[in-house]
Amino acid sequence: MLELPQVATGLLAETLEKFIAEELRASGLAGYVVGLSGGVDSAVSAALAAAAVGRESVLALALPGPTSAPESIRDAQEVAETFGLRLEKVDLGASAELLAGTLGARGDRVRFGNLLARLRMVALFDRARTVPALVLGTSNKSEILLGYSTLFGDAAASVQPLGDVWKTHIFELARALGVPQTLVTKAPTADLWPGQTDAGELGFDYPTVDPVLFWHHEGGMGREELVAAGFPSALVDGALGAYRRNRFKWRPTVVARVSASCMNVDRILPRNPER
Fold it and tell me: Residue 17, SS3?
């Protein structure tokens, strides 16, 4: 069976750190604000940022909601202590309940989860305004391709250092960067309702699905080719189904082009200017 190609973890970390440092330099702002969820992705983003721009320039926020697991705060605190980051706790419980009640969303766990994900980003951007800072994203390539993200929630950030990194490689980065082992081994979850896990919702885990996504998205292999290569048909159908359904999430709001200078996703952006 085909496998996900290996990655040079040290070179990947170095590249991402340079990216993080350059984006901050170009912005002219003072640092980064990052939400620490207690998961491996946010821990890796925070570790990379601390190495890139200095821990004093990275502010971490823990953003629990009314359904967050207690261990999420514990793990976020451990990450902050490991990398010497200042951690602020912003409890979104009352705000989430009030807004959900106003909208009539409390009885639908998906609606309520999306609402909470977007409130987290509201808190991050609001706190970033006071620094002033960029909001550091934590979404990885596997989540993005599968659509396992909330538009204008976790998908909204000033910069996304992990957006082109497979989840399988995130685990490798985490080990190399010294992320606490408890986060590396815990089941990935968005922590939007009790018992939620990525694998439970998707129907497969990342080490299993990443090779399918790689050989389809980057290798150009279709369904029949993937099945012929040895991947179970149910896995291929599940992965490709999510991939196709959620393509609308891959890019920011599409702007109707009516000129030759429209700042849209198909326009090549200029390089960051030198100061």
Answer: helix
In whole angstroms, give the CA distance from residue 212 to residue 232: 10
Q: Give the pLDDT means over successive 10-residue stretches in the chain (275 positions).
A: 95 97 96 97 98 98 92 96 98 97 95 95 98 97 94 93 97 98 93 87 95 97 98 98 93 75 61 57
Is 90 a domain residue? yes
Of the candidates 243, 215, 250, the residue with the CA atom closest to the CA atom of residue 230: 215
Rounded to whole angstroms, the Cα distance separating 124 from 135 reads 7
Six-digit token pair at 29? 């702002």
User: How far apart are the two ends of the chain, measured CA to CA in Å?
Assistant: 50
Residue 145 lies in a domain: yes
DSSP class per residue in 136-197: BP---HHHHHHT-S-TTTTT--SB-TTTTS-HHHHHHHHHHHT--HHHHHSPP---SSTT--
Whether pTM exceeds 0.90: yes
> What is the reported pLDDT for 263?
67
Whole-number CA gyration radius for the chain: 19
Q: 106 is in which domain, residue-wise?
A: 9-249
Question: Using an 8 Å Cβ cutoff, are 196 and 188 in contact?
Answer: no
Q: Measured between alpha carbons, how far is residue 29 from residues 22, 57, 92, 134 in Å? A: 11, 10, 26, 7
In a domain, 127, yes or no: yes
Q: How far is the C-alpha of 131 from the C-alpha of 86, rounded, in Å?
A: 13
Find the CATH number of the domain harbouring 218. 3.40.50.620
Please give the backbone phi and psi of residue 34, each rounded to the nearest 5 degrees, phi first.
-135, 140
Which of 172, 195, 185, 155 minimizes the C-alpha distance to 69?
195
According to the model, what pLDDT value does residue 273 have? 58
Tell whether 148 is covered by a domain: yes
Number of folded domains that form the chain: 1
